[in-house]
Amino acid sequence: MPSGSLTLLEAAKSGSDLLHDGVVETLIQESPILEMLPVVTIKGNAIKHRVEGDLPAPAYRQVNATYSRSWGSDLEHYWGVTILGGEVFIDNFIINTMGNEWDEKARQYAKFAKAMSRTFDADFFDADGTSNKFKGVNSLITEGFGLTVGAAANTANGGTLTLDDLDIAIDLLRDQSMPDAMLLNRTHRRKVTALGRTSVSGVSLIDVGDDKFGRKVNMYNGIPMRIIGDNITGTAILGYDETRGSSSVCSSLYFVALGEDKTSLLLGAGGSFSVKDFGETQAAPGHLGRVECYPGIALWSQYSIVRLQGITNT
């Protein structure tokens, strides 16, 4: 990862609030995306980004001739954040009969953090900017902020994943030699692992590395393969439910380049991540808490993410 990029995990280490730090750590443990994404903090609710548009046109000229003037242009757009959170309520009966007050609170906050991480992971891909959500990478790629290529040599109706498909997608990340991560489902991981172990005689393209918590992660050609699991309802986030051409049983995997100038997590209010425990309430017989943050995502370069779509389970 580029120097100077601070992840949410590293940012949480500077805190002194155990409840806050525990919620943030649970979020990150449950989400490989939040674990890896570098954080860009903003004071307001959006940040302006300028990218290079058209280039000027150099030309050759004859002696005593003049140039036709030209100029370059820039494109401007804004990356914004939204509000994600909710309230944690624990009935007095649970606190008084089930055990230690702080153990019960920790259990409920951990459950809520897990739900938040699954919600964010699903929206990282599929959110479309409606229902108070930010725009996910699928919408942003469609708008030209990323790249896409089809499986089975870009077959119109999708097909079986191959090593050539992976290499073509990797080469589209022109800003760096190799991606920082591959985001995929468990079936993809098995297929890539099988291809990497058997397709090249005498050489294995599969290795094993570690994540931020020391957990083992399979790697393809040096690229960590990070498994994207289920959403809050238990449905696979990267399931075989996408349509490509005449096929409606396709899926996608993603190569990402991470960094403050590539793919990053936005956090509004200067990076605020609020975890508050209000104690017992007068309005209801229980203890109330609230977890809230202002997240968004930014694709600073068109070459920071590639979607390899149209993958069938064959």
Note down, in words, how this protein is organized:
The protein has 314 residues and is α+β, with helices and mostly antiparallel strands. 28% of the residues lie in helices and 30% in strands. The protein has helices at 8-12, 18-30, 32-36, 92-97, 101-126, 137-142, 151-154, 163-171, 186-198; strands at 39-41, 46-52, 74-80, 84-91, 147-150, 181-184, 206-210, 216-220, 223-227, 242-244, 247-256, 263-267, 273-280, 286-293, 295-299, 305-312. Helix 2 (18-30) packs across helix 5 (101-126). The longest helix has 26 residues, at 101-126. The chain starts with 7 loop residues before the first helix and ends with a strand.
Structure described in brief:
This protein has helices at 8-12, 18-30, 32-36, 92-97, 101-126, 137-142, 151-154, 163-171, 186-198, and strands spanning 39-41, 46-52, 74-80, 84-91, 147-150, 181-184, 206-210, 216-220, 223-227, 242-244, 247-256, 263-267, 273-280, 286-293, 295-299, 305-312. With 314 residues, it is α+β, with helices and mostly antiparallel strands.
Low-pLDDT segments: none
Order of helices and strands: HHHEEEEHHHEHHEHEEEEEEEEEE
Structural class: alpha+beta
What distance lies between the first and last C-alpha atoms, to the nearest angstrom?
A: 34 Å
Gross morphology: globular
What is the share of helical residues?
A: 25-40%
Number of distinct helices = 9
Number of strands: 16
Please outline the major beta sheet. Answer: 8 strands, mixed
- Residue-averaged pLDDT, rounded? 91
* Cα gyration radius (Å): 23 Å
Strand content: 25-35%
